[in-house]
Amino acid sequence: MTVFLCSTCGTSYPPAAAEPRGCPLCMDARQYVPPGGQRWTTRGRLGEAHRNRIEKLAPGLHAIEVDPRFGFGQRALLVQDAGGNVLWDCVPLLDDEAFGAVDALGGVSAVAVSHPHFYGGMIEWARAFDATIHLHAADRRWVMTPDARIRFWEGESLSLSRGCTLHRLGGHFPGAQVLHWAPALEGRGILLSGDVVQVVPGGRWISFMYSEPNLIPLAGREVRRIGERLASLSFERIYGAVRGREVPEDGNGVVARSVARYLSALERVPEDRGPISL
Question: What's the pTM value of the predicted model, to 2 decimals?
Answer without folding.
Answer: 0.94
